[in-house]
Amino acid sequence: MTSDAWFPTGSHVHLRIWLGGMVFDYAAQAVAVRNLIHDWRRRRWYTIELIRDTIEECLPPRRLPYERLFLGP
Length: 73
Known about the structure:
By secondary structure, the chain is an alpha+beta fold. It contains 2 helices and 3 strands.
């Protein structure tokens, strides 16, 4: 599967971050998540999950904090 299939342009995805035994669920633009994962690969001190299929395509109400910082290159 290509990254384009996981991150369609202009879409929003459900992102789950595990940090210190706690779970944080966020909605974020696919481009921001792609850049976050690229950054994460350099230093993996937390766990990331992408939730592809959700009931009724519902996304979490909270957005990824500082999402706009990950929208750039």
